[in-house]
Design a protein that fits this description.
The chain is an alpha+beta fold and 435 residues long. It has eight helices and 19 strands. It has a 19-stranded mixed β-sheet that branches. Strand 2 and strand 3 form a beta hairpin. Helix 1 packs across helix 3. The radius of gyration is 27 Å and the shape is elongated.
Amino acid sequence: MLFPHLSQFWDMKKAFKVLFIGIICLLLVTGLTTLFISYFYSDTLRQELIREFEAQTDKKYSISISNIDLGFFSRSITIDSVRVEPKVNSKLKIISAASVSVNGIRWVSWWTQPLPDFTQVEVIRPIIEIIIPQNYTLTTTQYSDGTIQTEALDSLANFNFTLKNGRGVVLEQGSKRELVSIDDISLQATQVNLQQLLSQSGILFLKGLSVDASGLKWPLHDKFYEVNVGSFNFNKISESVTISDLYFTPTLPKYEFSKERGHQLDRIHLEIPEIQLRGFNLTSLTEQQFSLDTLRMENAWMEVFRNKQIPRRENESVKPLLYEIATGTDVSFELETAQIRNSTIIYEEQKPPSDSAGSISFNELYATLHYFRTATHPKFKETVLTMDVESMFMNVAPLALQVSYPLNNPKNNHTLKAKLESIDPQEVAGMLRNV
């Protein structure tokens, strides 16, 4: 499996769950009877918050804060320098934030419900550190089924949520290797339901969700790759995602790569300055459906190297063709259009008895693909994938390709038309000799 650590992102969501429990505890202990007293007895309020938080997390976590600022007339509560740590062995190492504010509090609503309604939660500069064991399997953490999980949450009105300039890291236990890290992330959402957040299942489906992040690093240590993303923007309202400076980089030189893996395989080096996804509806994922109008990338560069001087892996599986890909999932997926602009693909290999590698390249590549659907899509049986490609073959001769590929065909029969302009054999002698 190329990406073995997807569960690390789930652990990030569980960390935020602990933080939100702290916010609710703050509201619980700041009842109307202690509201005015707390101006003079902030230490008492702090102690009550700590006691309630520990009770709601079954005493598995402790919380510390430096200050609580209650604004009755400004209708806000702010806690500064929040820090949450586990009291028992836990994957979570630490959660901290410069400040957490609950704004727009409707104090009067406290008369009729366990928690007052509020309009916004704002978290400033949160930091999350998580340590997970090797070969970690995802499990669900349960907390107390008391007031917080039932009556209090059910009574709350929806609110807006803002997170600014957060960062996080997931470390491997023992080795302390970084498994994933992010330098900066900001998030906004509207009409948030707190039960939805605490269930960990609805974050992607929040209304008005937008995310801006930068400095994502994902080392794939056992695969000798590293994934880096310069910046990431997601906007649910405009149904758009933009990824900038995506790098999929091998961490070993060409010949050492396959030797360390112990068998022959492709070494892929990929650089994409920008990827755009437009036109999608995340809500349909709840019904295992997802459609994407447009995927677009420009100035991409991909190099594939294969060292054929060492043996193949035993029982190596055959790369699937489009029919196998389309029928290999239960998710109904549709991609209407994919566009590649001004990109480069290089394939290089060395095989015995040659003493050097040979390569072929497709430069100044422009490609447009229409209609890929999986087998559970209602229109799968009638889907014909088409692709038009223009490039400079070996950077010396124009090449045009047209592909027509009916997807509902177990034999993968398809039509390919190619036109290559005249080419001087001397200019591609290395490829003809070594590939």
